[in-house]
Write a structure and sequence with these properties.
Helix content is about 60%, strand content about 10%. The chain is an alpha/beta fold. Helix 2 runs parallel beside helix 6, helix 5 packs across helix 7 and helix 6 packs antiparallel against helix 11.
């Protein structure tokens, strides 16, 4: 309940709508509860005496009450919807904003599919709690309280039935809620699993088609879908047990009242109108108890979703920024001092171990190593995508933790191993690097990145629509656009994480030559091909998280067995 109360604090400007909705429910319930009393009077005093004028007057009053109840009910629906969906939007905005504050290490704790579910399905559950649960939550206690009071005022002997039936129904509801509560958490986790399969399949649809794995992927989806179906059926079957129990109690109660009330009518101690009105109150009271049971089940499910949402909101970002963080980066020199790093505190081995290296400002650096040697991990520490576990990373002689994240990341242009373009035009994507760049700057960056060559063949040029994820361009074209986007930042440090692997050697060479004209910019190339780094001022060789060797191409050929092995394997056939 603590998590639910915390989320309610986000209702903010929709609080008035929520309060108005509650007031309207009370008014509507009041009008409905007056009607049985009027009906009893109509029968006992109007119909019994044949007074048509009295009957018409009471009938008119009943019609007015019913109309007013309808108007207040419709008004409630309007305000409740605004409160529910406005509240959901606020939670979603807070949750999304929190995700933007996460470091990579925070995001690594959650599957993408789980975060999507927490931003969509779980928040929908919370919205439904307000939209569908507020009315019975407010209405039921009012109807229950007033209905019992009116019943006792009409006939206290018959009203004793409530003192018997209420505890029985309460025990039944407690048992059902206790059983179904953990099932709702399992249900939402199962939704995560289904979303994961769908997301993975859609992202890799071309690979699935290429390997003719449609049936295999279809089987995975069917398994997850069947599991979700079975979990939902089991959960709702348990949750709906309250309905037959409450209906059975209602009908038993009505039968008892008809038997004892009919006997009292025959004895002359109870009038027919009173019995009719009493039965109306009984139905309202029992219906209110059934509504309350449904609200408890709705709240039980919402508590499971609230916990999942609060897990995201309460997650503390792994990176903290100092209040007096530096914003000016004096130099593009980079130094690693005895740096150690692991992706998770539970990891058995460190990804990087005791790394010491110095990169002078304006130099060109190459980083080589086998798969899993820690090359990408090393460069991701430079702009604090991850934080070191031991040692320091310094830029311009200052610890990167002492810089503001915005200033640090503005000074570092990184083209990641996985190239990502967003939906929209090529221009939209390039402007991520510099939102104020004009066409001349855009084309200049594209010239350096080697993207102009194919962009000028597109009829719309920079205004060509890329489609979702850049599906309209090849892998090599996508890499060159990502390089151009990084160049538009005018960074002091440029990092290329194997970002020319999809272009041919000639194009790669022309890109390197163009980049060499960027004076004063520190350039770091992570590559698989020696041709990419052999002209670098210094090449670092990583092996299983250790710095195995460093030096120029010629120096490493003489001193490093790892480098010689890579060189000789790529020199087969006489070319790189």
């Amino acid at each position: 309940m603590k998590n639910f109360r915390k989320l309610l604090s986000y209702i903010g400007r929709y609080r008035k709508d929520l309060i108005l909705a509650c007031i309207l429910i009370v008014i509507e319930t009041g009008f409905e509860l007056i009607i049985p009393t009027m009906m009893a009077d109509l029968i006992d005093y109007g119909a019994a005496s044949g007074d048509k004028a009295y009957m018409l007057a009471k009938g008119g009053q009943m019609a007015i009450c019913a109309l007013l109840a309808l108007i207040t009910g419709l008004s409630y629906a309007r305000f409740a919807a605004r409160a529910a969906y406005g509240w959901g939007a606020e939670i979603r905005e807070k949750e999304y904003a929190r995700l933007q504050q996460y470091a990579f290490s925070n995001i690594d704790k959650y599957a993408t599919s789980s975060l999507v579910t927490r931003l969509t399905s779980d928040i929908t559950v919370m919205q439904n709690t307000i939209n569908n649960g507020l009315r019975p939550l407010v209405r039921a206690p009012v109807m229950l309280t007033l209905g019992i009071l009116f019943s006792f005022s009409m006939n206290s002997e018959l009203a004793l039935v409530f003192l018997i039936i209420a505890p029985v129904l309460g025990i039944i509801l407690y048992c059902i809620v206790r059983k179904v509560a953990p099932m709702y958490s399992v249900l939402q986790t199962t939704v995560d699993g289904l979303n994961s399969v769908v997301e993975e399949n859609l992202r890799a649809i071309r690979t699935v088609k290429a390997f003719v794995r449609d049936e295999y992927e279809g089987g995975k989806f069917e398994d997850k879908n069947s599991k979700l179906r079975d979990t939902a059926i089991a959960t709702n079957r348990t949750a709906m047990l309250n309905l037959p129990f409450f209906q059975a109690a209602m009908y038993i109660c009505v039968l008892c009242l008809m038997f004892f009330g009919g006997s009292m009518v025959l004895e002359g101690t109870l009038q027919i109108g009173e019995l009719t009105g009493f039965l109306s109150y009984v139905m309202q009271v029992l219906n209110s108890m059934m509504m309350l049971s449904n609200v408890f089940l709705l709240l039980t499910r919402s508590l499971a979703s609230a916990e999942r949402i609060c897990n995201v909101l309460d997650e503390q970002p792994a990176m903290e920024e100092k209040k007096d963080a530096a914003t000016d980066i004096p130099s593009a020199s980079i130094e690693f001092r005895d740096v150690s790093f692991r992706y998770s505190a539970n990891a058995k081995e460190e990804t990087l171990k005791n790394i010491n290296l110095l990169i002078p400002a304006g130099s060109t650096i190459g980083i080589l190593g086998g798969t899993g040697s820690g090359k990408s991990s090393l460069v991701q520490l430079i702009d604090r995508l991850y934080d070191v576990d031991g040692g320091k990373v310094l830029i311009g002689g200052i610890d990167v933790k002492d810089y503001s994240l915005k200033s640090l990341r503005d000074a570092v242009g990184m083209v990641l191993q996985k190239n990502l373009l967003f939906s929209g035009t090529i221009r939209d994507n390039l402007l991520w690097g510099n939102k104020d760049a004009d066409d001349s700057k855009l084309w200049e960056a594209c010239d350096i990145a080697g993207a102009s060559e194919f962009l000028r063949r597109f009829p719309k040029g920079l205004d060509t629509d890329l489609g979702q994820g850049g599906v309209n361009v090849s892998g090599g074209q996508k890499q060159r656009l990502c390089i151009a986007r990084a160049l538009l930042k005018n960074p002091k440090i440029l990092i290329f994480d194997d970002s020319t692997s999809a272009v041919d050697s000639a194009t790669e060479k022309s890109i390197r030559e163009a980049l060499s004209g960027l004076k004063g910019v520190t350039k770091i190339f992570i590559a698989q091909r020696i041709s990419t780094v052999m002209d670098a001022d210094c090449i670092f060789i990583l092996d299983n998280g250790h710095l195995a060797a460093s030096g120029t191409h010629d120096e490493l050929l003489e001193s490093s067995g790892i480098y010689r092995e890579i060189y000789q394997s790529q020199m087969k056939g006489g070319s790189l």
